[in-house]
UniProtKB/TrEMBL annotation, chain A:
Name of the protein: ATP-binding protein
Source domain of life: Bacteria
A Pfam family annotated for this UniProt entry: HATPase_c_2
GO MF: ATP binding
Native source organism of the sequence: Candidatus Faecivivens stercoripullorum
Amino acid sequence: MSGLKWTFEVDGNDFTRAGEASSSLKKKLRALGVSPDIIRRVSIALYEGEINMVIHANGGTIDVEMTPDRIDMVLKDTGKGIPDIEQAMQAGWSTAADEVRSLGFGAGMGLPNMKKNTDEMRIESTVGVGTTVYMTIYIS
Amino acid sequence: MQEFFHSVTLDRDKCRGCINCIKRCPTEAIRVRNKKAYIIAERCIDCGECIRVCPHHAKRATCDSLDILNKYKYTIALPAPSFMAQFNNLEDIDIVLNALIDFGFNEIFEVAKAAEIVSAATRKLMESRKLPRPVISSACPAVTRLIRVRFPGLIDQVLPLHAPIEVAARMAKRAAAAKTGLPLSEIGAIFISPCPAKVTATKMPLGTEKSWVDGVVAVSDIYPKLLGLMKDAASHEIAMLSETGKIGLSWGSSGGESSGLINDNYLAADGIENVIRVLEDLEDEKFRDVDFIELNACSGGCVGGVLNVENPYVAKTKLYRIRKHLPVSLNHLEDADLADPKLKNDLSWDTPLEFVPVMKLDEDVFEAMKKMEQAEEICQSLEGLDCGSCGAPSCRALAEDVVRGLASIDDCVFRFKEKNGYVPAPFRSEQVGVKDGKEETV
Ligand SMILES: Nc1ncnc2c1ncn2[C@@H]1O[C@H](COP(=O)(O)OP(=O)(O)OP(=O)(O)O)[C@@H](O)[C@H]1O
Ligand code: SF4
Ligand SMILES: [Mg+2]
């Protein structure tokens, strides 16, 4: 059985819209009656990934697929890429610009939070080409 | 003479005539006479400092009672962003908003939503570079009033946009009138307020002739009524009502308005004394390379408003927690034209801010200069203790009151006592803590 699929375009030029994709996915999952704990984990992981696509890359596309037993998210951007993924994954590592810090971004906690809230996570990145993040959360 | 309304008033029965409030007032608007404080109406900016400092709780803020809901056919609650920071373990703003509906409001329009629109408009205005820099925020009415009476040279720099509460009332009422078919007069936009300055701002607005806000209730009045309703709301499916993101909520604490500019070249000061220091420095043309100045009369910003219930620092942490995973902003102006008449009416001042010289000594400049010299002389002759026993906040203030004909130089207790051969303690030669020739630690 093929699952439900959603695609979200993430605008990399409008920082004020960052986070809208994960908030609209959250509304859809609520309407579907998905359990609050799963909704919380999906929306936090997707939120952090989406924000990264805007503040560190030039935006891109998010594909979400939900089947009865799992939710898969693929976040693909064509930004500057991550030179050292292991370093980026460390809590506290950040290259965020100053103007987003007053809104609470730039703590270097996004990627670690994505890892914490998902069951599987993998990053593919090529400097100058872009980054793709794969995340999976099991429902049952 | 203009009529004055003030939210901050005195409870004469509770007032003991002490000098705590006169010393604290940033516009020197309070004097003690006949063992009671009284507030000079044209000077008061409703900042609430005297309410905070009065040990006898004799200063109070007059707000509307919750019965005001019964006055209108259709009511809209306008909760302040800082209101969301008053609750323990609040995970979802919608619980508060649903409880407000259960309380009896027909609709909610979050002030945070309007704040995001004001942020978007401010970004547009700053980009157009039409405003003299640095731009000074106009959101805190106590600060705007302070500038109006004490800092005439800075008036041109004040952001000519309505505060989010006014924008919220206008947008909400217009939409509700279209939806319900009711005339605007039967729709009540009720602000849930952290501060008395906002009460005054709706009764005697700056930047416009008449405010669209129909009533202001204190956070502290509605808070206890909501707790039970929130418990009920949390236990079942609730409507998704909130339409605000990070920027809107952030306005509830100091630095929040600035964060909405997406430009780190700003300065945010909070607490009335810090605000005054920044305004004085601005007058001296410091901070020329800063783009935006955010000023909040209360420590911590609106979370520190006197009508809130939670400790301001705790509230700030709560606000940050709630905003954590919200979209940056849910309200945008895109290509909207700020000159469009309807949007202009919702957002922009239609009456310019004007200097009100309440502190000056005379209408006539030469007279004023003469009086200033006299005041200077009198001030020199006073002890310079700024003790407040004369009922004025400082020796200088007494001297000015004297030349204004409002006080006598003999109101100074030291002068009075000296005449009778008495040496006041601060002028006596014996040392404190020296007893029988031995020094004691104090
Ligand atoms: N999609 C991406 N493209 C390019 N670089 C990225 C991307 N995602 C993350 N990074 C890099 O990895 C670093 C760490 O990311 P992480 O999300 O953990 O922290 P942050 O975004 O800097 O701060 P926070 O997420 O706490 O607001 C970033 O500062 C950035 O250098
Ligand atoms: S900082 Fe906020 S709560 Fe305090 S006086 Fe100004 S508007 Fe009111
Ligand atoms: Mg991040």
